[in-house]
Amino acid sequence: MAQCVKVGIADMNIVSGDDSITTIGLGSCVGIAIRDTVKKIGGLVHIMLPDSKAVRSNASIAKFADTGIPELVKQLEAKGCVRRNMEAKIAGGAQMFAFQNKQELLSVGQRNIDATKAALASLGIPIKAEDCGLNHGRTVVFYPIDGRYEVKAVGQPVKTI
Amino acid sequence: MAEEFDLEKVSHEYYDVLKEIGNIGAGNATTALSQMLNTKVDMKVPQVRMMEFKEVGTTMGGEDMIVAGIYLVVEGDITGSIMFMQRKESAKNMVNKLMMGMASEGDDFSEMELSALKEIGNIITGAYLNSLSTLTGLTIYPSVPEVCIDMAGSLLSVPAAEFGAIGDGLLLIQTDFTDDDSMSGYFILVPDEDSYGKILHSLGF
Asked: pLDDT digits over A25-50, tens only?
């Protein structure tokens, strides 16, 4: 029986086989799904902020794009995955409220997307698909077996990317 | 200037102060709500607790529950944000009461109804902040409210992200108020890093 593993905010996990992995209610956060296309092992990290170096309290690795993504890759490699076989799909980074973060030029959602892309680029992992930005929340389910990444938004049909 | 505030060291005494702030604020907001809707509104003793981010979504009864969130940024002596959240059906009920039963059928909100919802948010968060300001002697200006109807998890991630810069958890002052099942809501007050210190300092800590 295939299981669906749940990942919370600032959290990560890895699944294999028929199992899937999900995170519910991505707002300005970004859900990064990475899998080894040969081994069919994949993981999901739910990052909340772009940069661990910009804040004082940065003990939680999965909270930041610049630390969470390398950590997920490291954990995948520990399970025998190979970097050059890895591919990523990303979703989230919405701007939920119009005035959010007016001190910053870009919304935290956009900065999360930018930092995610930068982190994946520096690891040499290609982004196969994305569903980012706009102003609505997303629930995602990732199937490492075939790389499907389902994105659900309120009042919209499920989108598979 | 108050000493640097460390969330990990929040004592029971601090919790009590924050709970009292939540209580007084919510009391005023409840009165405002009651007057506006011309009906009796009860409220529960607020809960103040430290949550891990992982738990944030489950607070409101599931991350994927559809809620209406009214969000304001606070400026002045303290900065931070305040969110008033309620189930979508509750929000609709409240709007319907405010519009004297003239709201549209079903769950969705028309432009007019969204505006009414914003106004409800404005009045109750205003009452909340007013009492906080009176109590602490600090000047607090709320911004114009923004409303968003979406999954609870995605709305809560907004204050969580602002808070993520300080600690690994969220200090939640949660107040429930009800007249019956059809109308309930939560307040989430998120002062930023310096503001916790300022609030406590102004109260003699």
From this structure: 898 999 999 999 999 999 999 999 89
Q: pLDDT of B99-134, one tens digit each?
A: 877 777 777 888 888 888 888 888 878 888 888 888
**DSSP one-letter string for chain B:** -PPPP-GGG--HHHHHHHHHHHHHHHHHHHHHHHHHHTS--EEPPPEEEEEEHHHHGGGGS-TTSEEEEEEEEEEESS-EEEEEEEEHHHHHHHHHHHTTT-SPSSS---HHHHHHHHHHHHHHHHHHHHHHHHHH---EEE---EEEEEEHHHHHHHHHHHHTTT-SEEEEEE--EESSTT-EEEEEEEE-HHHHHHHHHHTT-
* Cβ-based neighbour number of residue A115 at 10 Å: 22
Cβ of B53 within 8 Å of Cβ of A8? The answer is yes
**Chain B residues close to A29, C-beta within 8 Å:** 154, 157, 161
Cβ pair A137:B154 closer than 8 A: yes
Chain A to chain B, count of Cβ pairs less than 8 Å apart?
119
Catalytic positions of A are 29
Q: How far is B195 from chain A (nearest CA, A)?
A: 16
Cα(B83)–Cα(B101) distance, integer angstroms: 26
pTM above 0.80, yes or no: yes
- The answer, yes or no, to whether ipTM is higher than 0.85 is no
